[in-house]
Amino acid sequence: MKKVISLLILISIGACFSCNKEVLNKKPLSIISDADVFKDPALINAYLTQIYYDMPVLGNDCNANGPTDGDGSWHAFDINDVSDESFPQFRDWNPSNAFTFKYGNLNIGGGVLDWWGYNTVREINQFLEKLPSSPLPADQVKSKLAEARFLRAFCYFSMVKRYGGIPLITKVQDANEDQATLFPPRATEQAVYDFIISEIDACASDLPEVVSADNLGRPSKYAALALKSRAALYAGSIAQFGTVELNGVVGIPASAAKAYYQASYDASQAIIKSAKYALYNADANKSTNFRNIFLVKNNSEVIFAKRHDNANEATGGNGWGVDFFNCPRPQAWGRGLYEQAYLELAESFDHVDGTPGTLDRVAIQNKLMTTDELWANKDPRFFATFYTQNTSWKGNKLDFHAGIRLPDGSIKTDGAYNGIAATGDQDYQGTGIGVLKYLDESHDNMAGANSGWSTSAQDWLIFRYAEILLNNAEAAFELGNTADALNSINQVRGRAGIAALDNLTRDNIHHERKVELAFEGQRYWDVRRWRTAVHDLSIRWSGIRYILDGATGKYQIQIINNVDGTSNIPQFRQENYYLPLTVGRTSNNPKLVENPGYK
User: How far apart are alpha carbons 280 and 557 in whole angstroms?
Assistant: First the structure.
């Protein structure tokens, strides 16, 4: 989908309930009035396309637009780096807010993952009000209205999962309206989720069953159902595990949990029974197959994706920054490996026979090993998700070794030994584990037309079929339908090449989501909605070092504890289950009560 940067129309004035008459009464600076826009089919399409561009949350929950703020840069990884998956590892720079906020520094000032999307909601509300009187044929009006309602539901979902209850604004506000209308209070969290679900129910059937090739990147009926599957599952979890506070502004009554799980289950079932999608299974090698889910465009698993091309976002293209930042060195100014995975996540990937993948950390540090021995019989998804010592890359093997073990047992960390450099060419001071998911080995970020940050052409998968199976499993389990839940989980495990489960627990479901959906922007929201984040995100995590044995070519393994740094202690506090609204917003609208715990 191409961005429409030059669209000159008055589509957003500011936060809809903090605007003022002086601003609104000024003449538009644009050369095309909004009245003219809705008389011209081309401008109508451009307006709708611009809304996508104004929704950075479509790109891995980014919180801003532009080549230094959206998914064209490092902010695409913030959602992973505030979780227990990874941390940003440019040690002398660390531009990401995630690096600060994961260590107990999220306070009333906010900053991390913040997205108060009312400018975009206003754009959508205007589109919904103006389009019916346009010259477009009735069938196009109907489908475009449905598309806009889907986008509005997505905006509200993006906000409610951040803040809890928020104002529900469904029409364009006018500065001449009374103060009660211009400055609405927060709706309850339950009311916002109910609105999202009702919008999906209203618009899904008016969206196409199959999106045509020239409209890839726009929602189908099943993209809407996927949003319902996810949103209703979140609401069910919050009702089951959360606490109601501020008279329901945050939290959902426990009595509502079953109905939300049923809504999620029904939406997942509609997608499954449609037979429009299937787990990607084109490659015999299970690791290659899993990796290609994210590299083969528009494959059988993709329900809804943010489309990218390989043109630099800063010069008008629609690329993103995953290859530039996350590829091994020499990418990203010779640094590479911006996002580095924790050893604990790597250990979460079990063995193919289903036994736990947790390393015996004492045993492995007391013998020499090959990397094949260290990672023997791991879940094939492990090798498609991470790269580490001896991972194949561009015809070579990556080298993270952090010293050479000499015959006398000492470790040489500079110079060379027998013609072998004492240290490898990769970042051996981080966790020792890079993120392979989404990376394209054929892509060159270093020169020519592909130079610059945001030039990766890989699409970002917003909804894919495996998630629907996992949503179905969780909702079915919480509704007491264990057999259906087990079947869905085992479909995902079977595609991965790992042993089926004989029985199922809630922990099994949570674990399968952690592994299958790693680095897909899901983990942070999952542990928040399950209310396990205070424990899961407040752990001192580890990394791994490989010391090359000069005599055998094997490795002495070292576990690096507290890999974030001795002064960086991960801490997720109880109030962090919701982001703060911030003083700026509560000052603009006195009816906006701040979330509990922020002062």
Answer: 36
Residue 582 CA to residue 592 CA, distance in Å, equals 10
R_g of the chain, CA atoms, integer Å? 25
Distances (CA, A) of 196 to 145, 185, 263: 15, 18, 12
Q: What is the pLDDT of residues 350-373, one digit of tens each?
A: 999 999 999 999 999 999 999 999
Short-list 235, 101, 219, 223, CA closest to 164: 235
Sheet holding 86-88, edge to edge: 86-88, 339-341, 434-435, 386-387
pTM for the full model? 0.93
Phi/psi at 31 (nearest 5 deg)? Answer: -100, -5
How many Cβ atoms sit within 10 Å of the Cβ of residue 168? 17
The DSSP line for 451-489 is: -SSS-B-PPEEEEEHHHHHHHHHHHHHHTT-HHHHHHHH
Q: Residue 226's pLDDT is what? A: 98
Q: How far apart are CA 461 and CA 392, in angstroms?
A: 25
Q: Give the pLDDT confidence score for residue 503 in this predicted structure.
A: 97
Specify whether the CB–CB gap between 454 and 321 falls below 8 A.
yes
- What is the predicted pLDDT for the residue at 74? 84
Q: Quick one: 406 exposed, middle or buried, by C-beta within 10 A (0-12, 13-18, 19+)?
A: middle
